[in-house]
Amino acid sequence: MQEAIILVGGKGTRLRPLTNHTPKPLLSVAGSSFIRHQIAKLMDAGVGHVVFATSYLAGLFEEEFRDFTRDLEISYAVEEVPLGTGGAIRNAGRLLRGPADAPVLILNGDILSGLDLRDVLQRHEAREADVTLHLTRVSDPRAFGLVPTDEAGRVLSFLEKPKTAEECITDQVNAGCYVFRRSVLDSIPTGREVSVEQETFPELVAQGKRVFGHTTDDYWRDLGTPLAFVHGSADLVTGKATSPLVERPAEALIHPTAAIAPTARITGGSTIGPRAVIGPHAVVDRSIIGEGVTVAEGAQIHDSVVDHDASIGSASLLREAVVGCHAHVGAENELPAQLRLSCGIRIPAQGVRVSGTAAACAAVH
Ligand code: GTP
């Protein structure tokens, strides 16, 4: 039976406040929690047992899958103290049951990719590899550690983020999906934090282990930042990225219990959650609107996430914003791009305007 580990123990700090109460892999993208998209993909690839490596808000994963009845066994390897990506893999490895040379699929819990998992498993077996890493090509490698390979695909080294153009000797970067020979997991140290990228992989290469890259040009996006998160969700809705849970591409995914005014425009792969209300002439473009959210008349929301039970007042404008749950943006606000509003915060009507306000001064003089 094919086994897999998903790393889901990170705090997801870059996605706060969405991750204050919900771990990143349990946030909803294109109508389902992200981890359910990953589970569906793993099942399509023949995986029969998956181990969740949990730490932050660990109990919520067991809650999410308590009623999961499909043909997949789920185990939980809970870290009381986060062990880092390498330590988490080692710790989750204890719960695997396959033989020492069995290939184990390992996924980061925040990567949306079009990688063919059966294909990477096949390549791993054909090369008799100890470890195979999925590599993707990026246009600007400066934000990533680089992974150069030789002509046969063997990994030569793991390089820190390049600072100069000369240091950009390849555009291949770690795409956050690996196949490990099971026995290799046991070589990772226990009892302390270990980074798979900075420690485990360089050590395996230095020891002469058979570490290979599997480079593809498939769709790939790390959903770790707010903008990447909303764009990943929109790509799933519009079909640019695929998931077994999204049946057909659409301009928007609207929950049947949401109420959308006929003159509202929902575009760009936006998702509208259960019981959300979108008022007349409102525009929601490439955004995620959570359960129970109200968007009033004429409001415009672009490239943003509005978490559950928040409300956006009439004629307000949001760009690349993250609005925490139960927050309220009053009427006629124009928020600066990339603003994050804490859960429950209230901005009064006309409280914030990037482009200046014509409203009369309040009686403060
Ligand atoms: P940021 O805080 O925003 O950087 O997000 P993150 O905590 O998710 O970190 P990062 O994106 O680097 O993590 C990549 C993947 O590894 C994610 O799926 C995390 O859930 C997971 N991860 C990171 N650290 C740990 C850890 O210590 N234990 C476990 N089990 N998983 C981890």
Automatic annotation (TrEMBL):
Residues 4-236 form the Nucleotidyl transferase domain. InterPro entries: GMPPB_C (IPR056729), Mannose-1P_guanyltransferase (IPR050486), NTP_transferase_dom (IPR005835), Nucleotide-diphossugar_trans (IPR029044). Residues 251-332 form the Mannose-1-phosphate guanyltransferase C-terminal domain. CDD domains: NTP_transferase (cd04181). Belongs to the transferase hexapeptide repeat family. This is NDP-sugar synthase. It comes from Streptomyces himalayensis subsp. himalayensis. The lineage of its organism: Bacteria, Bacillati, Actinomycetota, Actinomycetes, Kitasatosporales.
